[in-house]
Amino acid sequence: MNSHSTVLVIGATGRVGRHVVAGLRAAGVTVRALVRTPEVAGLPPDVELAQGDVYDPDAVRRAADGADAAFLLWPSFSADGAEPVVAALPKRVVYLSAVTTSGVWGHVEELLAKNGRDWTYLRPTGFAVNAQAWAEDFRTGDTVRLPFPEAGRSLIHERDIAAVAVLTLLDDRHVGETYVLTGPEVLTQAEQVQTIARAVGKPMRIEEQSPAEARQSMLDMGADPALADSSVTYWSSLADDPEPVTTTVPRLTGRPARTFAEWAEEHADEFRVLSTAEIADRYVAALSAGRVDDALALAAPDAVRVAPLETDGEEVELQGTEAVLENARRLSVDVEYLAVDLLGPFVLDDHFAVRFTFDQRNTRSGRRYRTTKLSLCTVADGRIVREEVFYYTPPNGN
Ligand SMILES: NC(=O)c1ccc[n+]([C@@H]2O[C@H](COP(=O)([O-])OP(=O)(O)OC[C@H]3O[C@@H](n4cnc5c(N)ncnc54)[C@H](OP(=O)(O)O)[C@@H]3O)[C@@H](O)[C@H]2O)c1
Question: What's the pTM?
Answer without folding.
Answer: 0.85
